[in-house]
Amino acid sequence: MRWRGERESGNVEDRRGFSGGRVAVGGGLGTLIIIIIAVLLGADPRQILQQVPNDTAPSTSTAPRTGNAEEEELKKFVSVVLGKTEDVWQDIFRKNGKQYRDPTLVLFTDQVESACGLGSAASGPFYCPGDQKVYIDLSFYEELRRRFRSPGDFAQAYVIAHEVGHHVQKLLGISDRVEAMQRRMSEADANRLSVRLELQADFFAGVFARYVQKQGLLEEGDIEEALNAASAIGDDAIQKQTSGRVVPDSFTHGTSEQRLRWFRNGFDTGDISEGDTFSATSL
Ligand SMILES: [Zn+2]
């Protein structure tokens, strides 16, 4: 993808190096030692706790860690990709008489606190509807390259575009409706609905890819990179890799083939009315 010189989104929140906001080990340990000494001297620990300033938050929240040059480059890249998703969805929402609200992209290391609870790098990038933020540990891209054998910058762009697709579903009320229905269903039925939600996010990622192509920013092999990633992180592929067998009932993202098909649909049509995975008779 030709991304250099393109607008970087301002909606990136850099929380790298915070590990869920509890990194001030030194301060915490210092506090603990003070309390132990004071208790040994006969003081009431509760009183001391009130006097000790809470030194974990302010000192860490002001200065995000800057990574190495490669990771800074990656941060720039995802900021441009997020900017493109803003452009395309602003445009599509406006044309449909709706207003798009930009989501925030949170960069984190290892683990992160979100309105949806504690997220970890191990579970991969995710979208939290509760705070309308996309979370990603940039080291996931290393995993995408190695474990899922999906190199290339457009594979990385696809990951962001998919998560933003979940944000679009939130704004359109789709995910809320699905969630309400799932509460009254068996687990297997609820999973089947989750698959449709995931495939629609892939469709939306395809719509994004078409927009980038129209701007003349796609390079040869970009679409193949995205398709490769969609296929590699399909549930069947992941399950085969981790457990050696495939269990269709627990699928929540769709098979590789389904993900490819819906991404392609989005890319070929660019029309969100074609992305109704919920009434599609065949996925
Ligand atoms: Zn998803």
Order of helices and strands: EHHHHEEEEEHHHHHHH
For the record, give the distance between the C-alpha atoms at the N and C termini, rounded to a whole number: 29 Å
Shape: globular
Largest pleated sheet:
4 strands, mixed
> Which kinds of small molecule does this entry bind, naming each only once?
zinc ion
* % residues in beta strands: 5-15%
Account of the 3D structure:
The protein is an alpha/beta fold and 283 residues long. The protein has 11 helices and 6 strands. The protein has a 4-stranded mixed beta sheet with strand order 1-2-6-5, with helices on one face. It has a two-stranded antiparallel sheet with strand order 3-4. The longest helix is centred in the last third of the chain and has 28 residues, at 187-214. The model is unreliable at 21-26 and 52-62 (pLDDT under 50).
How would you summarize the topology of this molecule?
Blueprint: E1 12-15, H1 25-40, H2 45-51, H3 58-61, H4 69-95, E2 104-108, E3 111-114, E4 117-120, E5 126-128, E6 133-136, H5 140-146, H6 153-171, H7 174-182, H8 187-214, H9 222-232, H10 235-243, H11 256-269
Parallel strand pairs: 1-2, 2-6
Antiparallel strand pairs: 3-4, 5-6
Helix pairs in contact: 4-6, 4-8, 6-8, 6-9, 7-8, 8-11, 9-11
This protein binds zinc ion (ZN).
Residues 162, 166, 198, 201 line the site of zinc ion.
Highlighted features:
283 residues; four-stranded mixed sheet; two-stranded antiparallel sheet; 6 strands; globular
